[in-house]
Amino acid sequence: MVAAASVVVAVGTATGLLSALDDGGGGADQARPEVTSSPLLAPLPAVTPASPTPSASKSPSPSAGTTKAKKASHPPSPGATKPATKPEAKRAPAQVSTRLYRYPDSQVLDWVGAHRDDPRRPVIETEIADRPAAVWFADFSPSTITARVRAVTAGAAGAGRVPVLVPYAVPDRDCGGASQGGAPDLGAYDGWIDAFAAGLGSDEVIVILEPDSVALADCLSPAQRTARFASLARAGRVLKAANPDARVYYDAGHSGWNAPAKQAALLRQAGAASAASSDGVFSNVSNFHRTDDEMAHDRQVLDALGGPAGLGAVIDTSRNGNGAPADGEWCDPAGRKLGRAPTTNTGEARIDAYLWVKLPGESDGCKGTPGTFTASYAYDLAR
User: Is 332 a catalytic residue?
Assistant: First the structure.
């Protein structure tokens, strides 16, 4: 996920910075199957309203004159956009949905437990640690992925809540950038997705399928891009066939990246317009673009995409409370704030949920080691 929208740095894939607790998901699961920390996505520069370009977030799409953005989710925009420091318009804040699952074992929870006397702890605990967030699976581990996914989905089912899972192992992810890695080839990836799907269970689950995989595909040759999109379309079908209650969303980049018509054309090739593989699109992963801008972008993408009327969008609001920096900075930029609370009750047409996909407080690599929880950064976001 390079300079386009928002780059995800897949750190901790070997060490498993996060681990899932065994909440009674079955004897086949190990006690604490490891999951990876949320990768660092670098934003790409955004374009003008007429032709948006990627901005800094997970794997942004590359744009002229911009540095590699974290993965295409939130790249900086080349043309100046709205002031980054201007907070979103005041409106009643969304309440945390009791339907979303708060993963019981994470870096922020580890920090809270180990720093009860830290004066920053109450704010970090209340504003970040107590909120439901996504669980990333960013390493290629075919032998353990089923048990690790099952540990999360079984825990969520036991609590009567909905987990948000992020499979992030497509080959050539991030175009060789900070979050490079993934499966060795598409054949291996297809097998990994099959194993991932086997752990989904039968209860409702939200799947954020491969951030930056669509918006950040410019580095691939036409043949490679066609093959990747075919594999992504297959992945959606496999996930939904394994669990009909799984809601699968595809990469729409973000409002500062590709123009909606261009992104929709790519998404259509990747299977996002088919009810057999898709429930819609996601945007702003690891990025900072305003929620209102993302809603407008996503609706335009959905209109251009076509497909079933029920297709919707989910938006990563974990760090977009003050919008994207005017200078396009994506690496732990100063002045950012938490965005709207995670909820599946948005009150907005075609917007299915506000989610915290990027885990707030996990550094992009400037205020701390990439992918690790940094208390000072978390506190600045939350206070």
Answer: no
Q: Determine the Cα–Cα distance for residues 85 and 239; give it in Å rounded to an integer.
A: 39
* Spatial separation of the C-alpha atoms in residues 111 and 376, rounded to whole Å: 12
The 10 Å Cβ neighbour count of residue 116 is 9
pLDDT (tens digit per residue) in 61-85: 222 222 233 344 433 222 233 333 3
Catalytic residue among 22, 172, 212, 352, which? 212
Q: Decide: helix, strand or coil at residue 282.
A: strand
**Which residue in 206, 169, 129 sits closest to 36, CA to CA?**
169
Single-letter residue type at 316: D
* Statement: residue 313 has pLDDT above 70: yes
Contact between residue 239 and residue 193 where contact means Cβ atoms under 8 Å apart = yes
Report pLDDT digits (tens) over 332-381. 999 999 999 999 999 999 999 999 999 999 999 899 888 899 999 999 99
Task: Using alpha carbons, select from 311, 294, 282 the residue that is nearest to residue 215.
Answer: 282
Helix axes 222-242, 260-269, angle to 10 degrees: 70
Neighbouring CB atoms inside 10 A of 140's CB total: 18
- Told to judge if 174 belongs to the known catalytic residues of this protein, a careful annotator would answer yes
Burial (CB count <10 Å: 0-12, 13-18, 19+), residue 190: middle
Q: Which of 22, 105, 172, 174 is catalytic?
A: 174
Token output for 22: 């065994």
Amino acid identity, position 267: L
Task: Give the torsion sign (CA, 51, 56, 58, 59).
Answer: positive
Q: What is the DSSP string of 169-233?
A: --TTGGGGSTT----SSHHHHHHHHHHHHTTS-SS-EEEE--TTTTTT-TTS-HHHHHHHHHHHH
Q: How far is CA 91 from the centre of its chain?
A: 24
Active site residue 22: no
CA gap 238, 234 in Å, rounded: 6
